[in-house]
TrEMBL record:
Protein species of origin: Halomonas alkalicola
Acyl-CoA dehydrogenase/oxidase C-terminal domain span: 230-385
Family indicated by similarity: Belongs to the acyl-CoA dehydrogenase family.
InterPro entries the record matches: Acyl-CoA_dehydrogenase-like, Acyl-CoA_DH_CS, Acyl-CoA_Oxase/DH_mid-dom, AcylCo_DH-like_C, AcylCo_DH/oxidase_C, AcylCoA_DH/oxidase_NM_dom_sf, AidB_N
All copies of domain Acyl-CoA oxidase/dehydrogenase middle, residue ranges: 111-218
Name of the protein this chain belongs to: Acyl-CoA dehydrogenase family protein
Gene3D superfamilies in alphabetical order: 2.40.110.20, 6.10.250.600, Butyryl-CoA Dehydrogenase, subunit A, domain 3
């Protein structure tokens, strides 16, 4: 963190390792932050998720600013002025890390600053204040939901967590007389001066060291409003829906990287006279890990497909897009830390030391579970969607319908789910985690039944939905097709 230059003037900058910039070039110069919008409805969201899955395997931390920049676009669409001013730079295939006004740059990145100390996940507790620069305010704004027409606002307050603090602009919440509003806070003001956004400190996190999460202070920072007054949370939730899908994808990429490290090791490492990969118990563990990756990847790609369908105006896919990101984010991140620990154990002692990437992945694993809503928040959001949007559950049943009758364990699990969902709504909250987990697993199973070889789908249903299901990896039923599962690691 570099707070001042040699003359004592404020810089509020973060210096990164050169590899961070190389990775940002790898992603942004190839358009992976923009493809969802430039090819929207034509597979763009699927291309973005596929790229994120691959990029995460290089380094998860730098994917945060890529995700933030990607996810800012739906918020910009709430303001024609902001979209005209910022969207061209956001969509540019050019990573430009220079700290300059947006008009002088060839490409722009976006960050987010919402969390405050007293609120956490309760965004309605936001205390940051926004005051208009205009001498007078039109009292009719709240009633008409029109956008303010003045030249800017001043923000004052503290943000406990700011993602990607070297971004060119930040989306944030602040309190106005009309309620909580959504604001865009640029790094430089319209007159080219550094905005009054002060870095307080960089977070000493458990992992995720490549991304310099920060605490910041707005000291009368210039900002422009986005969307209707008093509707800031609703406006920003469109960004959150995008980032949740990315937060569901990142653990799958990390799982895949950990699987490759473990598989390479057990093929080369010999013990008791033969390679570890030839020993039945090790085969069962690695095959089960491979099964998890395949099921999780199927679910995030299906969610991305729903986003593309929604962009084409398909109401059934729009309904699915409301539900699938939350299901996948919750369940994939609950599986992640245990997955990393099991992969680490495949290596033995060398897996626990820093020369192996598994120690880093193990520290990284919890972050996406916490980011954009921890487990309880996500499960309560699933209940909210099921209550307010019954068409989302109907679309979910429809997506699984082709798999019915193909696997008895899946059929039994779906019948159990139907019984649970028929219970009174007030009794579901204590079981929200089980409901979310089971719905995610059934979707994974149904996708594998429809699209994967039968030995993969059958093994998944037996190990996740059957009587022999276990929370531990490597507990496969007798006769499981380990050889076929292991062969798919290389495919």
């Amino acid at each position: 963190m570099r707070l001042f230059d040699r003359h004592g003037r404020r810089l509020d900058e973060v210096s990164y390792h050169p590899a961070y910039h190389e990775l940002m070039h790898l992603a942004i110069d190839r358009g992976w932050h923009a493809v969802a919008w430039q090819e929207e409805g034509r597979g763009g969201h699927q291309a973005h998720v596929a790229a994120l899955y691959l990029l995460t395997q290089a380094e998860p931390g730098f994917c945060c600013p890529v995700t933030m920049t990607h996810a800012a676009m739906p918020v910009l669409r709430h303001s024609s002025r902001a979209q005209a001013r910022w969207a061209p730079g956001l969509l540019a295939w050019d990573y430009d890390p220079r700290p300059l006004p947006a008009t002088e740059k060839s490409g722009l990145t976006f960050g987010m600053a919402m969390t405050e100390k007293q609120g956490g996940s309760d965004l309605r507790a936001t205390s940051t204040r926004a005051d208009p620069l205009a001498a007078t305010r039109a009292e009719s704004l709240a009633a008409t939901h029109a956008e303010p027409s003045d030249d800017g606002w001043r923000l004052t307050g503290h943000k406990w967590f700011c993602s990607a603090p070297m971004s060119d602009a930040f989306l944030t919440l602040a309190r106005t007389d009309e309620g909580l509003g959504c604001f865009l806070v640029p790094r430089f003001t319209p007159d080219g001066e550094r905005n009054a956004i002060e870095l307080q400190r960089l977070k000493e996190k458990c992992g995720n060291r490549a991304n310099a999460s920060a605490e910041i202070e707005y000291r009368g920072a210039w900002a422009e409003p986005i969307g209707a007054p008093g509707r800031g949370i609703a406006t920003l939730l469109e960004m959150v829906q995008q980032t949740r899908l990315d937060a569901a994808t990142a653990p799958v990429g990390m799982m895949r990287q950990a699987l490759r490290v473990a598989w390479h090791h057990v093929r080369e490492r010999h013990a008791f006279g033969r390679a570890l990969a030839e020993q039945p118990l090790m085969q069962a563990v690695v095959a089960d890990l491979a099964l998890e990756v395949e099921a999780c990847l199927a679910l995030v790609m299906r969610a991305a497909r729903a986003f593309d369908g929604a962009a084409r105006g398909d109401e059934n896919e729009r309904a699915l897009a409301r539900l699938l990101p939350a299901l996948a984010k919750y369940w994939h991140n609950k599986r992640g830390p245990g997955f990393m620990a099991e992969a680490m154990e495949c290596l033995g002692g060398i897996g626990y030391v820093e020369e192996s990437p598994l120690a880093r992945l193990y520290r990284e694993a919890p972050v996406n579970s916490i980011w954009e809503g921890s487990g309880n928040v996500i499960c309560l959001d699933v209940l909210r969607v099921l209550r307010r949007h019954p068409e989302a559950l109907a679309a979910c049943w429809q997506a699984m319908a082709p798999a019915r009758g193909e696997n008895r364990r899946l059929d039994a699990a779906l019948a159990e789910l139907e019984r649970l969902l028929a219970e009174p709504a007030e009794g579901l909250e204590p079981r929200a985690r089980w409901l979310t987990q089971r719905l995610a697993q059934c979707l994974q199973a149904a996708l594998l039944v429809q699209h994967a070889p039968s030995e993969v789908a059958d093994a998944f249903c037996a190990t996740r939905l059957g009587d022999e299901a276990s929370p531990a990896y490597g507990v496969l039923p007798s006769g499981s097709p380990c050889t076929a599962l292991l062969a798919r690691i290389e495919s």
